[in-house]
Amino acid sequence: MKHWPLRYKITVWAALTTGLALLTFGLGATWNVYSEEIEAVDRGMAADARLLLAHRSELGQPETKNKDWLAALPDATASLYGYAIGATGRGDALRVYPESLASLTTPWPPPKKFFTQKLGGKHLRIGVFTAGGDTLLLAAKIGSVREIVSDLLGAYLLALPFVLLVVAGGSWWIAGRALRPVAEITRAAASITADRLGERLPAPAVQDEIGRHVVVLNGMFDRLQRSFEQATRFTADAAHELRTPLTIMRGQIEEALRSVRDDAEQERLLLGLLEETGNLQKISENLLLLARFDVGKNPLQFAPVDWSALVQEAREDAELLAAPRRLRIEADIAPGLRVSGDATMLRRVVLNLVDNAVKFNRTDGRLELRLQAAAAEAVLVIGNTGSTIPPERQGALFERFFRVGADRNREAGGSGLGLSLCREIVTAHGGRIVLGRSDEDWTEFRVHLPVISI
To answer: Which of 30, 45, 82, 218 could bridge to 127 as Cys pair (CB 3.0-4.6 Å)?
Structure first.
């Protein structure tokens, strides 16, 4: 039941609680009826005992026919079965009728005033009464009482399943109506994404607990939107403001490099600065692009793109990048695959993945590019013989500024924005990018894009 929907839980618990309450009520009512009937039998036996004790002298006569004497009690209030009578201090009964009651006369008189006993298959109620120096034991049949109780209990148990079905149906209906606003809130909240933070949950007409909950959630979304917009605006402004000074710095460093004469140390220092400036430019461009995606300002310009030709160009670039590390490149590119998208951004995705496959590869390793059609998709696979991405880190692979390990990133460089940007671009094209495999021998990424022509 732990993972059941709330509607099921409410229905089941309502049915169980009602069933337990009805069962308790039925048992209590049955016991109460039984007690009332037994008390009525006891009162009847007490009345009969007074009548019998008034004629107890006749019970002592040997010629008295016991059965006829019992039948001669027209005012009897109980269904008498038999009796026993004797002196209170005698030690045994003087007369017992019928003989089956003899077992109840030892000791005499019996210690209990009223009790129930089963004799010869019959359920009897026994009453012990004393008057003067005599004790009278009366036995009354209570079979009819037991039948009444049995019929009543059977009626309760027979009605219980039908009552539970009615309760379960009613609980299901009530729970559905009560949870309908919650379901609507859930659907509305699920539709609020980073590019739709301006949407709000519909406020219920009644300001009950759910209505107040919606007000609190909408207030939380207001605060989140302001914080998100502030962070995005800061990122975009910072990246934009950095573009001009970085461009100036790069120009000045290039000019200084051209003016350097016979100073290897100075040239090495300037080359390092030029490389770091280029990295800063790339980071600022990526941040600005990501900020545009965040605020829903899609920077893409869609047009038919020859996806196969674009991947083939990336293969040629990969050969240039792989040469210093002596990587073997294998390619299997299906021709004629076309997608709808921004060619510049799609080229950026492929080059980013290829660059990672080269950087994070081992020397004399292998790099593979495969582009094949699968149903209505074009599937690009870029794999390499690189380091394993630990399973516990794979869930954060496409997060911004993600790095698998400090050592690996120091060696290969990178800002941790590349895969995040790839995901944004591919998602904007209606596709998806996933980590297909990562183990000791092989790591590969898969890019799925819808095709418009094969």
So the answer is: 45
Which range of residues forms the domain containing residue 338?
Answer: 303-453
* Separation between Cα atoms, residue 400 and residue 416, nearest integer Å: 6
For residue range 35-74, list pLDDT tens digits in order.
Answer: 999 999 999 889 888 887 877 665 555 444 445 455 555 4
| 199 Cβ contact list (under 8 Å, min separation 6) | 188, 191, 192
Question: What DSSP line would sit under 75-111, residue for residue?
Answer: T--S-EEEEEEEETTTSS-SEEESGGGGGGSSSSS-S
Q: Looking at the structure, do residues 257 and 311 belong to the same domain, yes or no?
A: no
Predicted TM-score (pTM) of the model is: 0.49
Give the phi and the psi of residue 294 in degrees, each rounded to 5: -65, -40
For helices 418-428 and 343-359, what crossing angle results, to 10°? Answer: 150
**Each residue's pLDDT tens digit, 144-192:** 899 999 999 899 888 989 999 999 999 999 888 888 878 878 887 777 7
Query: Distances from the Cα of 438 to the Cαs of 130, 202, 393, 405, in angstroms?
Result: 97, 44, 11, 15
Final residue in a domain of this structure, among 294, 313, 346: 294
- The answer as to whether 386 is a domain residue is yes
